[in-house]
Structure formats: C-alpha cells, structure tokens
Design goal:
With 401 residues, the chain is mainly alpha-helical. The protein folds into two domains: 175 residues, no CATH class; 195 residues, I/LWEQ domain (Up-down Bundle). It has 15 helices and no strands. The chain is globular, with a radius of gyration of 22 Å.
Amino acid sequence: MNEPDSSSRTPRLSAVLREGEQVTALELFFDLVFVLALTHCTSLMAEPASWLNVLKGLLVLGVLWWSWVGYAWLTSVVDPEEGSVRLVMFAAMAAFLVAALCVPRAFGANALLFALAYGAVRVAHIGLFWLASRDDDALRHSVRGLAGSTAVGVGLLVVAALAGGTLQIAIWALALALDGAGPFLFGADGWKLVPSHFAERHGAIVIIALGESIAAIGVGADSTVGTGVVLGAILGTAVAGALWWLYFDVVAIVAERRLMKAQEGRERNEIARDSYSYLHMPMVAGIALVAVGVKKTLGHVGEPLAAVPAVALLGGGAVYLLAHVAFRWRNVHKLSRQRAVAAVLLGLLAWAAVELRPLPLVTLATLAAVLSGVILYEALRFPELRQRIRSLPKGGGIAPG
C-alpha cells in the first residue's frame, strides 16, 4: 500500500487566516468570560468603596482589557473556529476565567495565581500569533516585539505577587504601562486586521460593559422594591441608554468607516491601535465606574451618597465623554466641544457632590440629565449630518462634521 503524500497531510497545528468580516459565535462566547472579569472588577471597587480599591479595580481592569485586546487582534487575522485555534481558544478561556475568579483577591491571597493564569492567557495568544505568522515575515517581526512586552508585563505581575502594599500597586502600574506601550514602541507595520470585524468586536465589548451597568441595578437594589428603587432603576436605565446612544448612534459608524478607508498597513494599524486598543479602555473604565456608582445608589437610595461612589458615578461619566473626545480627534481630527464641556461639567458636579452630599437619586438624575442634554444638543445642532452619516453604506465615506 502506498504511503500518503506528506504534503497532503493536515498539520497537527494549523491556523486558517480569516476571510469573512462577521464576528463568529466562538468570539462572542470568548467575550462572555470578560463579563465575569468586569463584574469582579466593579465589585472590587465597590466592596468596600474606597479610593484604594478603585485604583486596584482599574489596574486589574486595565490588565484584563489588554489581554482581551490581544485576542481581538488575533481573531482579526485567524479564523478562531478553524484548525487548532478553536481548542487553544477554549484553553485561553479557561485561564481567563481563573484570572477573573482571582480578581477580588488579586492583590492578596490570589495574587500569584492571578499572575500565572494571566500569563497562560497571554502565552496562548502569542503562540497562536506565532503560528499564524509563519509565512509572513513582517507579522512575525511584530509578534516578536509583542512577545517581549508581554513577557515583561507578566514577569512584573509575578514579582508584584511577592510584594505588598504600595510597592505592589506600583509594580502593577509599571507592568500595565510597559505591556501596553509595547505595540507603540515596536511599530505597527506588520499587523493585519479586518476593519469591519475589528470595529464590531470593540462595539460588542462596549455592549458587554453597558450590560454590567444594567446588572449593577439588580445587584445594588434592595430586596424591597419601593419607590426609590423603582426611580433608581428608571434613572439607571436612562444613563445606560444615554451611554449607548453616545457611542452607537454616530460615533461607532464614523470610526468604522475611517478604519475601512485607511490605507492598509501602518496607517490602518495605528488607527486601530490608538482608537480601539487604547481609547476604548477609558470608555470601558468609565462605564465600570458608573456601574459602581449605580450599584451604591440602588443599595442606599435614602441615604447621602458617600464620596467615592459619587465621584465614581459622575467622574465615570466624565471619563467616558473625554474618551469620546479623544476618539473623535484621533479619527477625524475634530474636537467635540459639547462632549468636552459636558465632561468638565460632570467633573465639577462630582466635586460638588462630595461637598454637598445630595441623595443618591439626585446624583443619578444629574448624570442622566447631562448625558441626555448632550444627545439632545447634537440631535438639534447636527440633524442633517447625523442623517447623512447613518444613511451612508459601509465604506461610503466619512462626513466631515
């Protein structure tokens, strides 16, 4: 019997390059792990609510965000449901889940386990990228640089697990900064991505973050659903709806078209890195901070809101809007003055809330009013522009306004 031709054998390890634009079911399934991670990050910030815990929660969120971003880039190169990638994705999900479970004690008893689980997530990511780049020298060069910054970041988290107090937090911050700066320092020439898919993936993660703000209503609500809780639920939904509107009504559409029209290669990769990998982080962080404030509001509707949740609620809205301002500037080089003004106003209101300590529903209603005011202003000020943007087909151009 003749031996089969070795060239016809399917490799034991394979990665099929992505061809379609649609986000796959496995990618959405993978994102569900981020739901748990985000829930634990907001819980870390809220229980108990303190400035130190808010800092810890944001650091953990930043680290986990960076690992999710890596897989968004990966699955814009390879098909996650073909070859060996599917199995590795499941393994990465398991490691990501372990890391998410460690979040509440990521600076304590589970610090080392978190670092090791996070390291496993990143190793799987680098391994798949290495496999996908075997026939692409430029991509292989970029993967080498990413592997270096990843090793530094993971190594520092392991070191931080052996430290404590202020030193531990400082090492975490350094790990996040060096790991995140990697793609900026070693260049963007070699990466590849499918623009529509990449934008949709980040839109989905914004939806997931907004889902956490909705879940915070249920988690924070007292077992007795009285008038205050009902009003809080309505206002909380209004805030979440406004956050959704501010992103998806026009901003996401313009950004996706800008990415699609960018020249393939360095220009497109740098826009994707800056607009999505970097600037979506403060958007998600802002939503998470709002969720902390909403959770505390629904838990204590009849008592003055403490300083930390009050600042988280209004300051989170400010961070979200400022991220939008930077996002728009990066994509179309125009300043959104109304969103910048609203962000400054929310910052001032956060300071006033600390000084005056109004009832939580008043603070929540204030946030809803400011966000809704921005939406109303833009709808009345730019009606034709908005309609033109929303009516254009994908890749059909970018309105300049």
